[in-house]
Amino acid sequence: WSSVSDYYYCGTGDNGFSTLVGVGWEFPLGPKFFITPGVDWYQQWYGGGSSPGYTERVINFSVSIGLQGG
What we know:
The protein is mainly beta. It has strands at residues 2-5, 11-14, 16-24, 27-28, 33-46, 54-67. The strands form two sheets. Strands 3, 4, 5 and 6 form a four-stranded antiparallel sheet that branches. The protein is elongated, with a radius of gyration of 19 Å.
């Protein structure tokens, strides 16, 4: 489900099917500290309701920092 609305509560929405593929790597920088870069790819297909169907694609790049306790 994807929707959008404005300040005046006018909006539209549509439903469809989506996929997600992600990859990440963990690199230790110390005994209890690591960094994890990653990339995720999303693709969504929508039926379009009264309009023709459409596809949305998003690529997300990320970096995480981890601290291990103990």
